[in-house]
Amino acid sequence: MKHPFSPFENQNYLNMETYRKSRQGVKTPVWFAQEGDTINVRTFLVSGKVKRVRKNGHIRLAPCKSNGELLGDWVEAYAEISDEVTAEKANQILNRKYGMTKRMFDFMGKMRGQDYCVLVVKPIAQTEAAV
Q1: What is the CATH number of the domain that holds 35?
Q2: Which pLDDT value is given to residue 131?
Q3: Sign of the torsion formed by the C-alpha atoms of 61, 121, 18 and 112
Q4: Consecutive sets of 10 residues in the chain, 131 residues long: mean pLDDT of each?
Q5: Model's pTM, two decimal places?
Q6: 40 CB contacts (<8 Å, ≥6 apart)?
Q7: CA angle 15, 16, 22 (to 5 degrees)
Q8: Mean pLDDT score of the chain, rounded to an integer?
Q9: Residue 30 in domain
Q10: Is residue 31 part of a domain?
Q11: Dihedral sign of CA atoms 99, 78, 51, 83 in order
Q12: Count of beta carbons in the 10 Å neighbourhood of residue 96
């Protein structure tokens, strides 16, 4: 059986749709690091997507271009904020994947005093099986 996250292999961006209290979706193109059956997304701790994931971890993902234009179908998933060890490992994978461009964004964030976190994303089917 094909893994739900296989459409994201060899992609640079994914469109991540999180949900407001009103159930209105908010779509955001993001960098990501895929490792096996998990996708990690590093973002600002105070970002809207982090606030929305704290309230409702059910999300949708689709491969996309940097402008958010979809390159494939939506996949249902569940996201939660990672622990520090997972966040550091994900950051290292993102550094390898995006190279100097990511390091430049990290430097600018550090200069602005930004705090980051990593959202750990798993397919819905996998999280339901674990329950």
Answers
A1: 2.30.110.10
A2: 42
A3: negative
A4: 85 96 96 92 93 96 96 96 92 93 90 92 67 42
A5: 0.87
A6: 32, 33, 34, 82, 86, 90, 93, 94, 118, 119, 120, 121
A7: 130
A8: 91
A9: yes
A10: yes
A11: negative
A12: 10
pLDDT of residue 121: 97
Side-chain half-sphere exposure of 19, counting CA atoms within 13 A: 15
DSSP per residue over 26-85, as a string? EEEEE--EEETTEEEEEEETTSHHHHHHHH--EEEEEEE-TT--BSS--EEEEEEEPPHH
Contact 42, 94 (CB under 8 A): yes
Query: Model confidence over 54-86: pLDDT tens digits?
Result: 999 999 999 999 999 999 999 999 999 999 999
Cβ neighbour number for residue 98 with a 10 Å cutoff: 17
Q: Is residue 45 part of a domain?
A: yes
φ, ψ of residue 38 to 5 degrees: the values are: -130, 140
Domain total of the chain: 1
Q: Assess if residue 1 is contained within a domain.
A: no
Could you give the CA distance from residue 122 to residue 129 in angstroms, rounded to a whole number?
11
Domain span holding position 94: 6-130
Residue found under tokens 């407001």: 20
